[in-house]
C-alpha cells in the first residue's frame, strides 16, 4: 500500500496561490466506475468524507446514461480542490470515466489540482502500462473507433499513464475501513493546510467525537461490551463487518469482534464476551451456517436472549430471511453437512436457533448502499445504549403529556427521518419547567444525532463570561480534544458554521434572553447539517419570533391533580398527602397555582414540619412570598424598562382578569404606551391574553405586589399602589396618605365599615386609579353600604384616569370634581340622582357606567360634557324617566344600554348616532314608541326591544342597513311589522317569540339572503306568506306553540338552506308541505304535539335528517303506521293487517341520530327489523307504547347509546343489545321478567334500568343469581 503525499504534487507557487484563493464548491471530486464500487467501497468512502464535513461530489447513477460526459461533471471537476480517482477492474471500460480522467489530469497540469489515485483490486503497473483488464478495455474501444476516436483513445492512454505514476493507495487485501480512514485523514490534513493559508483564524479541527469522549458518556454499567458482532469471517470480515465495526467504534460503542479462523470449539473468551455484552448483531451471510463455531455462538446468543432478555438484531446479508428461518438454500446444505458429522441433538438446537433469529426484526441487505444500512444500524444501537443523558428530577409529573402535546403541534421535532433543519422555541415564565422539558427532550432524542450539545444558563453566562465563552463551550462539544483558538465572536460564528454545516446536530440553548446570543450560537438554519434540531428555551416569546423559529411551544402550568402529586413527592415522599395534611396541601397547591418550581420549593421546605408550622407558613405566604421563588421570577422584571414595569405593577395590583381593551385605554391615558407594553409583557410571559382578558399567574401577581411593598415596608402611606383591604383601611382611617400613592383598590366585602374623610385623600395629589367595589354584588350587600362620606366630601381628581366606585353613597359627584384626563367612570349600584352638578368638561371620557343606580332620575347634557363618549350603560336605572335630547347627537357613541329602565317612556329622535353599534331597550316596559331615525345608521349591528310596550316599528327602521340582530321577543303589544323591514339586507337573526298580538308575518317583498334565524314561536300566526321563499339563507325556523297555525305553504320548501324546522305544539297543524323532501339540508324536525296524521311521502328524501321528534301521536292505528315510519317504510297490504314492506335501500336515513316516537300506541309488529339500517342512531325513545317485543335487528345499531322503554307495560323481552348502549330506561315495564330474552352485557357496560320492580321480578332475579346493585343497574326514577 502506497501513501499519497500531497506535497509531492504541488504545482508552482502561482498555481497554488490561485487554488487557495478560489471559492470552491467542493472539496473532493470522486471519479469511479459505478458497477464496481458504487454500493460498497465508494459509498463508504463518500460517507466517511461527508462525516468529516468534507464537501464531496459523487455523480448519481441516472447521470451515466449516454456516451458523452455531462457538462455538470466537467464543471464539478473544475470546482473541486482534490480529485480522488478509484481505479477498479472495469474503470477503463467506461468511456465516461476515461473522459473524466482526461479532464482531471488536464486540470491538474494547468491549475495544480491535487489528484489522489486508489488502485482498487488492480495493480498500479497495469493501469500505468494498460495491461490486464485495462488492455482488454482499450482494445475494445479501438475496434470501434474512427480517426477522431483513435485520437481520444490516445489521450485516455496518456491520462492512465500519468495517474498510474502518482503515489496513492493500493487496496487488494486487508480491512477497507482502515484504508478509508487513512484516505480521509490525508484529505483532511491537506484541506486544513490550505485553510491555514487562506484564513489564519481557522485552525484545522478534527470533526470526530473522539472515542474516549463518547464512551465516557455511554452508560456501560456491569457490561464490558455494548455490542457483540457474530459473523462469518470469509464472507464479510474485510468489507461489511469491517465498516460496521469501524462505524460503531467511531461512535464510542464498545464492540467485540473475533475472527473465527481456527479450531472447531468456541473459545472461552468468546463465551465470556457473549455474557458481558448488552446486545448482539448477528450478520447472517451466505456461508454463516457452514461454520460450526458461528452456529454454536448463535445458540449461546439466543439462550442469552431468552434467559436475560438481551437484544438481538439480525442482519440478513445477501440472504433471504426465510432461508435462515426455514434452512433453505445454502443454510439447508450447511445443516445437512453438519448432521453427517455431529449428533442430531446438536443440529436440532442449531436449527431452532436459526428459526428463532430468522423470526426477529432486523435489516435485510440485498440492494442499496451498505453505508446507509450501517448508519441506520449504528443509529439504532446509539438510541438504545449510547446516550449522553442529562440529570433531571426523578419526579417528572405531567412531562409525557407535554412532550406528546409538543410532538402533536410539531411532529418533526422527534421524527428521526426528517432531514430538514428545524428550530423550536419553548417559552414561559420562570419556574414553569422549560429547562426540564428541554432536558427530557434532549435525553429522549439525543441518540439520533451525530453531535449533541446542551448549553445551560445562556443568560447568566453571557453576562458574566461573554458570548465568546459560550461559543467555545459549543465548539468543545463538537471537538472535545481540540483547542478552539477563536479570539472574538465573529471568528466563533465562522468556525461554528464551518464545523457544523455538514453534521446532524442536536443543540439546546437554555434560558436565552437576547437576540445576540442566538445570532452567535445558532444564527441560521444553514449553519447546521440535514436533520439537525435546535431547541431554545426563553422567557421572551418575541425573541423566538424575531429569530423566525419553525415552531413555538408555550410551557404550561400543571393541572390540579399533577400539582398535588408533584407537591406530595417533595413534601411527603409519596404521591398523595398524609391524611391530616390534605386540606393544608390543597391550600399550598392552590397558592402555587401549578408552578412546578413553587411546588418543589415549598414541598421541600415543608417536609417533616408539623401542622402548626404549616399553618404559620401559609399565613406568612399570603403577605410575603418565598424568596427562593421570588428570585427566579424577578429576573425577568428587572430587565423591563420603566413604563413596562409600571404596567406590570398596575396589572398585578388592579387589572388581573380585566378586558385588554379596557386596560389599554386606562394605561394609555397614563402615558404608559400600553399597546406596546402589554405586548412586551405577553412576549416575556408575565401575562397571557385569553378571550381578550389579561391574566397573570398568582405568584407573579404576588411578586408585583411585594415589589410595591418593598418601596417602604413599614409605611404603606408611601407605597405607590394600595390593594390590600386592611392596608387601605389603615391608610385612610389614619390619614397616612402621601403623594406617592397612585392607585387604590378597596374590596368592601372584607371590611365591616369605613368612614372616609376629605382629609384622608388630601395629600394624594398623584392619584390615577381609584376602585372601590364589592366581591359579590348581592342586593343585601349593596343596600348595606359600608362606606360613610360627609356631604361635603371631596378627593383629588386632577390626575384621575379611572374612577370605579360601586355603591357610591352621595347623590352626585363632589362639587370640586375636576378630572380632565378621566377615561372611565363606573358608579354602579350608587345613590346618585344625577351624575354631576353644573358644567363639567370631560373630553377624554370614554365610558360611563351607572348600572343599577336606582335613584338616578336624569342624565346631563353629555354632548357638552363628554363629546367623545363611546359607551353609556344605564341598565337597571329604574327611576330614570327620560334622557337628555343631546344623547341622540352623540356621533362617537358605540354602545347605549338602557335595559330595565322601566320608567323610561320615550327616547329622543336619533339624529347623528352614526357610530352606534349596539342599542338596547330590553325590558323598558314603559317605552311605547321606538324613536324616529333620521339618516342612515349603517353601523348599528344589534337592536334589542324585547319586553317593551312598542306597538309598531317606524318605517325608518329601514335605515338600519347594517343591522344583524333584531330582538322583539315578548313585545305583547306589537301587532305588525312594516314592510320596510325587508330593506334590512344584513339581518341574520329576527326574534318575534311571544309577540301575542302578531297575527301575520309581512310579505317578504325583497330577498333577505342573510337571514339565518326566524323565531316566531308563541305567536298567533295562522299562515306563513308564500313569499317566505325569499329567505334563501334561513337555517332555523321556529314555530313552536303557534296554536293558530293550520298549514305551511309549499313556498317554504324552497328554503334550501333550512336545517332545523320546529312545529312542536302547533296543535291545529295537520300536515307538512308536500314537497318537504326538497329541504335537503334539513337535519332536525320537531313535530310533537301536532295534528299531523301522516307526513308527506317526500320525507324519504331527507337524507341528512338527524333528529326526528314525533312523540304523542295517539291517533295512529296500526294500518296507518306509515305516518310515523314513512321516512323508511312504503305502504302495502299483507295478511297480518299491518300492511308494511321495506324499501330496497335505507341509505337515505344514515344520518338520523335521534328518533323519538314515544306514546304512539305502537302494537306488536309495528317496529320493523329494518330499523337496523339507521346506522347513525344514538338515541331511540320508544316509551309508553304497547308492543310485546323489540326486533332483534336493534343489535346492529352500533352507535346506539340511549334506549328509552319506560312504561311499555306489555314488553316481555329485550333482545341482545349493541355494546355501545350505555343507558337503558325500562322503568314500569311490569311484564318484563328475567327469564325473558334479557341480555346484560358487562363487557359493553350496558345498564338495565328498573324502577318499582314487582316482588315477583325481584324474586326471579335473585333466583337467577343476578345481583341487584348500582354496579349493574342504573336506576331511573
Q: Biggest sheet, in brief?
A: 21 strands, parallel
Average pLDDT, all residues:
82
- Count every helix, treating DSSP H or I runs of 4 or more residues as helices: 40
- Rg value: 43 Å
* Unreliable spans: 1-8, 10-22, 62-67, 194-221, 260-264, 1113-1146, 1235-1253, 1260-1277
What portion of residues belong to β-strands?
A: 5-15%
**What's the overall geometry?**
globular
Number of strands: 42
- How far is the N terminus from the C terminus? 96 Å
Percent of residues in helical segments? 25-40%
Structural class: alpha/beta
Summarize this, please?
The chain is an alpha/beta fold and 1277 residues long. Helix 14 links the parallel strand 8 and strand 9 (311-317). Residues 24-195, 223-385 form the TIR domain.
Amino acid at each position: 500500500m502506497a501513501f499519497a503525499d500531497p506535497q509531492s504534487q504541488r504545482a508552482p507557487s502561482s498555481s497554488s496561490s490561485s487554488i487557495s484563493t478560489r471559492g470552491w464548491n467542493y472539496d473532493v471530486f470522486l471519479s469511479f466506475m459505478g458497477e464496481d464500487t458504487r454500493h460498497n467501497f465508494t459509498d463508504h468512502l463518500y460517507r466517511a468524507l461527508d462525516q468529516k464535513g468534507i464537501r464531496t461530489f459523487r455523480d448519481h447513477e441516472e447521470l451515466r446514461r449516454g456516451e458523452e460526459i455531462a457538462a455538470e461533471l466537467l464543471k464539478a471537476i473544475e470546482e473541486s480542490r482534490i480529485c480522488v480517482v478509484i481505479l477498479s477492474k472495469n474503470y477503463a471500460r467506461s468511456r465516461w470515466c476515461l473522459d473524466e480522467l482526461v479532464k482531471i489530469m488536464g486540470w491538474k497540469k494547468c491549475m495544480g489540482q491535487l489528484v489522489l489515485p486508489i488502485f482498487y483490486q488492480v495493480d498500479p503497473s497495469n493501469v500505468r502500462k494498460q495491461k490486464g483488464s485495462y488492455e482488454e478495455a482499450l482494445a475494445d474501444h479501438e475496434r470501434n473507433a474512427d480517426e477522431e476516436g483513435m485520437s481520444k483513445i490516445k489521450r485516455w492512454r496518456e491520462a492512465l499513464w500519468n495517474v498510474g505514476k502518482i503515489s496513492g493507495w493500493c487496496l487488494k487485501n486487508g480491512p477497507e475501513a482502515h484504508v478509508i480512514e487513512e484516505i480521509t485523514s490525508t484529505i483532511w490534513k491537506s484541506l486544513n493546510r490550505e485553510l491555514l493559508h487562506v484564513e489564519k483564524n481557522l485552525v484545522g479541527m478534527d470533526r470526530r467525537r473522539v472515542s474516549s469522549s463518547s464512551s465516557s458518556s455511554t452508560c456501560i454499567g456491569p457490561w464490558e461490551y455494548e455490542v457483540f458482532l457474530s459473523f462469518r469471517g470469509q464472507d464479510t470480515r474485510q468489507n461489511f463487518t469491517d465498516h460496521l465495526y469501524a462505524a460503531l467504534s467511531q461512535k464510542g460503542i464498545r464492540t467485540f469482534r473475533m475472527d473465527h479462523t481456527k479450531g472447531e470449539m468456541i473459545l472461552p473468551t468468546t463465551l465470556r464476551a457473549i455474557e458481558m455484552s448488552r446486545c448482539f448483531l448477528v450478520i447472517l451471510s451466505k456461508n454463516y451456517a457452514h461454520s460450526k463455531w458461528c452456529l454454536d455462538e448463535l445458540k449461546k446468543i439466543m439462550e442469552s436472549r431468552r434467559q436475560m432478555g438481551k437484544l438481538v438484531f439480525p442482519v440478513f446479508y445477501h440472504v433471504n430471511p426465510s432461508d435462515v428461518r426455514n434452512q433453505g438454500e445454502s443454510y439447508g446444505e450447511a445443516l445437512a453437512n453438519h448432521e453427517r458429522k455431529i449428533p442430531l441433538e446438536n443440529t436440532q438446537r442449531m436449527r431452532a436457533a436459526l428459526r428463532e433469529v430468522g423470526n426477529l426484526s432486523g435489516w435485510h441487505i440485498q440492494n442499496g448502499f451498505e453505508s446507509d444500512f450501517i448508519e441506520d444500524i449504528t443509529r439504532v444501537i446509539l438510541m438504545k445504549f449510547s446516550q449522553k443523558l442529562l440529570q433531571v428530577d426523578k419526579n417528572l409529573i405531567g412531562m409525557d403529556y407535554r412532550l406528546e402535546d409538543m410532538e402533536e403541534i410539531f411532529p418533526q421535532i422527534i421524527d428521526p427521518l426528517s432531514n430538514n433543519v428545524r428550530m423550536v422555541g419553548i417559552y414561559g415564565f420562570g419556574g414553569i419547567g422549560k429547562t426540564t422539558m428541554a432536558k427530557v427532550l434532549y435525553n429522549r432524542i439525543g441518540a439520533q444525532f451525530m453531535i449533541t450539545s446542551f448549553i445551560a444558563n445562556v443568560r447568566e453566562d453571557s453576562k458574566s463570561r461573554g458570548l465568546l465563552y459560550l461559543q467555545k463551550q459549543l465548539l468543545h462539544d463538537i471537538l472535545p480534544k481540540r483547542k478552539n483558538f477563536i479570539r472574538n465572536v465573529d471568528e466563533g460564528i465562522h468556525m461554528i458554521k464551518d464545523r457544523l454545516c455538514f453534521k446532524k446536530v442536536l443543540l439546546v440553548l437554555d434560558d436565552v434572553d437576547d437576540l445576540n446570543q442566538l445570532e452567535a450560537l445558532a444564527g441560521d438554519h444553514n449553519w447546521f447539517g440535514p436533520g439537525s434540531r435546535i431547541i431554545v428555551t426563553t422567557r421572551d416569546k418575541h425573541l423566538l419570533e424575531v429569530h423566525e423559529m419553525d415552531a413555538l411551544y408555550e410551557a404550561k402550568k400543571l393541572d390540579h391533580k399533577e400539582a398535588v402529586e408533584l407537591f406530595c413527592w417533595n413534601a411527603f415522599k409519596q404521591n398523595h398527602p398524609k391524611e391530616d395534611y390534605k386540606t393544608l396541601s390543597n391550600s399550598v397547591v392552590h397558592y402555587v397555582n401549578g408552578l412546578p418550581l413553587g411546588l418543589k420549593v415549598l414541598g421541600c421546605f415543608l417536609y417533616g414540619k408539623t401542622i402548626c408550622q404549616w399553618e404559620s407558613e401559609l399565613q406568612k405566604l399570603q403577605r410575603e412570598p418565598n424568596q427562593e421563588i421570588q428570585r427566579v421570577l424577578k429576573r425577568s422584571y428587572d430587565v423591563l424598562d420603566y413604563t413596562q414595569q409600571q404596567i406590570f405593577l398596575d396589572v398585578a395590583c388592579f387589572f388581573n382578569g380585566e378586558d385588554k381593551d379596557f386596560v389599554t385605554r386606562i394605561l394609555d391615558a397614563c402615558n404608559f404606551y400600553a399597546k406596546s407594553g402589554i405586548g412586551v409583557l405577553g412576549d416575556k410571559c408575565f401575562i397571557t391574553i385569553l378571550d381578550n382578558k389579561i391574566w397573570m399567574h398568582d405568584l407573579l401577581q404576588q411578586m408585583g405586589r411585594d415589589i410595591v411593598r418593598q418601596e417602604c415596608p413599614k409605611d404603606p402611606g408611601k407605597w405607590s399602589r394600595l390593594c390590600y383591604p386592611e392596608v387601605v383601611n389603615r391608610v385612610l382611617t389614619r390619614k397616612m396618605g402621601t403623594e406617592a400613592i397612585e392607585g387604590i383598590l378597596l374590596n368592601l366585602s372584607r371590611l365591616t365599615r369605613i368612614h372616609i374623610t376629605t382629609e384622608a385623600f388630601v395629600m394624594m395629589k398623584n392619584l390615577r386609579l381609584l376602585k372601590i367595589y364589592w366581591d359579590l354584588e348581592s342586593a343585601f350587600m349593596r343596600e348595606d353600604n359600608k362606606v360613610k362620606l360627609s356631604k361635603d366630601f371631596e378627593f383629588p381628581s386632577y390626575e384621575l384616569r379611572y374612577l370605579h366606585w360601586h355603591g357610591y353613597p352621595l347623590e352626585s359627584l363632589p362639587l370640586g370634581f375636576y378630572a380632565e384626563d378621566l377615561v372611565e367612570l363606573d358608579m354602579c349600584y350608587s345613590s346618585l340622582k344625577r351624575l354631576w352638578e353644573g358644567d363639567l368638561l370631560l373630553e377624554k371620557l370614554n365610558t360611563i357606567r351607572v348600572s343599577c343606580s336606582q335613584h338616578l332620575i336624569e342624565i346631563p347634557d353629555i354632548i357638552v360634557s363628554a363629546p367623545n363618549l363611546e359607551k353609556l350603560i344605564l341598565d337597571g336605572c329604574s327611576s330614570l324617566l327620560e334622557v337628555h335630547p343631546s344623547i341622540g347627537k352623540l356621533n362617537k357613541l358605540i354602545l347605549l344600554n338602557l335595559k330595565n329602565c322601566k320608567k323610561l317612556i320615550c327616547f329622543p329622535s336619533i339624529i347623528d348616532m352614526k357610530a352606534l353599534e349596539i342599542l338596547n331597550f330590553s325590558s323598558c316596559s314603559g317605552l311605547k314608541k321606538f324613536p324616529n331615525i333620521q339618516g342612515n345608521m349603517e353601523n348599528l349591528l344589534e337592536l334589542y326591544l324585547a319586553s317593551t310596550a312598542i306597538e309598531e316599528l317606524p318605517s325608518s327602521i329601514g335605515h338600519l342597513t347594517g343591522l344583524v340582530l333584531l330582538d322583539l321577543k315578548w313585545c305583547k303589544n306589537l301587532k305588525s311589522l312594516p314592510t320596510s323591514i325587508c330593506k334590512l339586507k344584513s339581518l341574520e337573526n329576527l326574534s318575534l317569540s311571544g309577540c301575542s298580538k302578531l297575527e301575520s308575518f309581512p310579505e317578504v317583498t325583497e330577498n333577505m339572503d342573510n337571514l339565518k334565524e326566524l323565531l316566531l314561536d308563541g305567536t298567533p300566526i295562522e299562515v306563513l306568506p308564500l313569499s317566505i321563499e325569499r329567505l334563501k339563507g334561513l337555517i332555523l325556523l321556529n314555530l313552536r306553540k303557534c296554536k293558530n297555525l293550520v298549514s305551511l305553504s309549499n313556498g317554504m320548501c324552497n328554503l334550501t338552506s333550512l336545517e332545523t324546522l320546529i312545529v312542536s305544539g302547533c296543535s291545529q297543524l295537520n300536515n307538512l308541505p308536500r314537497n318537504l323532501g326538497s329541504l335537503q339540508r334539513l337535519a332536525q324536525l320537531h313535530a310533537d304535539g301536532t295534528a299531523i296524521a301522516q307526513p308527506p311521502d317526500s320525507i324519504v328524501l331527507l337524507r341528512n335528517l338527524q333528529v326526528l321528534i314525533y312523540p304523542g301521536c295517539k291517533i295512529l292505528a296500526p294500518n296507518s303506521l306509515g305516518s310515523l315510519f314513512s321516512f323508511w317504510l312504503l305502504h302495502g297490504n299483507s295478511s297480518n293487517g299491518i300492511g308494511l314492506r321495506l324499501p330496497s335501500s335505507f341509505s337515505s336515513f344514515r344520518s338520523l341520530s335521534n328518533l323519538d316516537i314515544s306514546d304512539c300506541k305502537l302494537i306488536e309488529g309495528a317496529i320493523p327489523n329494518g330499523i337496523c339500517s339507521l346506522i347513525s342512531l344514538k338515541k331511540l325513545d320508544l316509551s309508553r307504547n304497547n308492543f310485546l317485543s323489540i326486533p332483534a335487528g336493534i343489535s346492529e345499531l352500533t352507535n346506539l347509546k340511549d334506549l328509552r322503554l319506560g312504561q311499555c307495560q306489555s314488553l316481555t323481552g329485550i333482545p341482545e343489545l349493541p355494546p355501545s348502549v350505555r343507558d337503558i330506561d325500562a322503568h314500569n315495564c311490569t311484564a318484563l321478567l328475567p327469564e325473558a330474552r334479557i341480555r346484560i352485557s358487562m363487557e359493553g357496560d350496558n345498564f338495565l334500568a328498573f324502577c318499582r320492580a314487582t316482588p315477583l321480578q325481584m324474586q326471579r332475579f335473585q333466583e337467577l343469581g343476578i345481583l341487584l346493585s348500582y354496579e349493574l343497574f342504573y336506576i331511573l326514577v
